[in-house]
Specification:
rod-shaped; three-stranded antiparallel beta sheet; 3 helices; five-stranded antiparallel beta sheet
């Protein structure tokens, strides 16, 4: 059997999901149907295939920079990193305002809301197709008037079901900035559980200039 080199002997395999779920040895090998089964001799295992170590954990076989065979724990290899997640072309959350248009009224509620839809992507990890989904988990509204940002987990809604509002107290022109934090999950090769990305991605959306105006009243005799 093969002795581990440069690996942590935790005895655990796979990647951890949102509820502590880990891919079993069988699930990891099932992701690579063209590779030799668990228990095969080291010399018979091609580069890029999984293998079972003496401790019962799973490693991936790669070529090191010096040309020697190298083992990488499956917990590291079969993972979509937060850096990978942040490189996906996430679309920033749309800013919706009521009243609609380029203006709002001073000392009146301005309704804001966005779209809380999950975004889905396809990428590859170690040559395997990986499905990724991004879920908005926090919205930070900066209304551009120097007030404290509004931080919420709600996407909000339009009138009359609105839950997010802001009142401007002075006549001015502002830009609203919406920062959205996204959590990620990924599924390898279309099988197995959805696993959590260890970290979040962020998008920033800025509105067109918004004029805050006073309402003029005309007295009718």
């Amino acid at each position: 059997m093969l002795a581990e080199q440069g690996m942590q002997n935790s005895g655990e395999t796979g990647s951890t999901g949102q509820n502590g779920r880990r891919l079993s040895v069988a699930e990891i090998f099932a992701l690579y149907p063209d590779c030799p089964p668990a228990g095969s001799e080291f010399s018979a295992i091609p580069i890029g295939c999984p293998l079972l170590t003496d401790s019962g954990s799973v490693a991936m076989k790669f070529k090191a920079g010096n040309g020697e065979d190298e083992l990488v724990p499956a917990t590291e290899a079969l993972t979509l990193t937060v850096t990978d997640f942040q490189r996906l072309l996430l679309v920033g959350s749309e800013i919706n305002l009521q009243p609609q248009g380029e203006w709002t009224l001073v000392n009146m509620d301005t309704i804001v809301f966005t779209d809380g839809t999950i975004q889905e992507f396809s990428t590859t990890v170690l040559g395997l197709p990986v499905a990724v989904r991004a879920t908005p988990v926090e919205f930070t509204w900066d209304f551009g008037d120097g007030s404290a940002p509004l931080v919420t987990t709600e996407a909000g809604a339009g009138y009359p079901d609105h839950t997010l509002t802001h009142v401007y107290t002075t006549v001015e022109t502002v830009e609203i900035t919406l920062t959205t934090s996204w959590s990620g999950e990924f599924q390898i090769n279309g099988t197995g559980p959805w696993l959590a990305v260890n970290g979040t991605a962020t998008t920033v959306t800025v509105s067109d200039p918004l004029r805050v105006e006073t309402a003029e009243t005309n007295l009718v005799p």
